[in-house]
UniProtKB/TrEMBL annotation:
Domain of life: Eukaryota
Protein name per its UniProtKB record: S-adenosyl-L-methionine-dependent methyltransferase
One CC-aspect GO term: cytoplasm
Coiled-coil region(s): none
Organism: Suhomyces tanzawaensis NRRL Y-17324
Amino acid sequence: MKVVSFDKLVSWVGQRVSAKEIFSLDHTCMNEYAFQQKFVDYLSASRITTVSPYYVQTFLRRYIELIERSGEEMAEELYEIYCGELLGAKQLDVSDKEVITYHVGGFGSGAGTSDHTVKIYEAPRLISGSNTTGLRTWEAALYLSNYLNTHPYDWSGKTVLELGGGTGLLSLALTKQPLKEIIITDGSAALIDNLSETLHMNAIDNGPTIKCHQLLWGTTNPNSPDFVQGPPANVDVVVAADVTYDSSILDVLATTISDFLQSGTKMALIAATVRNEQTIADWNASLDRWFDGQWSVVNSCAVPGDIDSLCWFRERTPEIRVYEIRAKLG
Ligand SMILES: C[S@@+](CC[C@H](N)C(=O)[O-])C[C@H]1O[C@@H](n2cnc3c(N)ncnc32)[C@H](O)[C@@H]1O
């Protein structure tokens, strides 16, 4: 079972993991007085009580109850924060947005793990319908972000383009790599517009150049009736996360990846969540049709909820796979 540590707790609170999920783990160390005081210092120093007052209030209610039950001495300041500035905090409406902080510095939970985080402005209570899938960050993006920052490829001076970028987490996770340029694309113009706020909030200095533009799959091949423009030039690597969720879009996605691989891109890295066996079988079949002998699953995690790390994966997150598709040699 995962054990709560101070660093993990702070990271999970930033990611707004529910109190119920956190306190279902081994959290005995949290009852200690010194731990409570450290948490008070964190609450006072960070902006979390202003950014997510209802979430912190709910979290503290449960924390205080558990400390009381444990018989340990309670840090008065915890109670003061709970009864003071958080009093009257209201639950968000379904479409209300909050800043969520995701750890993307690599899997791991202690010393040596990079503290790289990305802030995303999103609606955490939104239940996604077909037009809102890009309004929240999906587990495959969080997984691929941490995977690529744990097992870095040779990014030096390269240009990466993301397909179906949604909130932009994956691209922003790569900003600490020595890339030349990152291009975030999505089919939705509204999502591309949202990205300017996200980029501003993450204030990336001294990193790669970042560009955002609309790119609808299926529009990059001059032989297609839907042709709008060819793939952007000089892209070395294409990345994408959770873009294989619907069988009806797989071929059009594959055509776009193929257009890139025929225009000089060396490789595509796609993270897929295995929610439905048939959809993933359809994706594998699309890969065979378009990229026979060029693709493989380079990494997979059967139970992401078991990952003991600063980033949090919900208990019932389905298997996540990382697919690598290589350009034809020669
Ligand atoms: C499930 S979301 C994943 C978003 C993000 N990659 C993540 O993992 O958090 C799928 C994304 O693909 C985009 N998308 C879906 N169909 C598309 C298409 N035909 N062309 C371009 N983007 C598309 C959606 O707008 C959405 O942002």
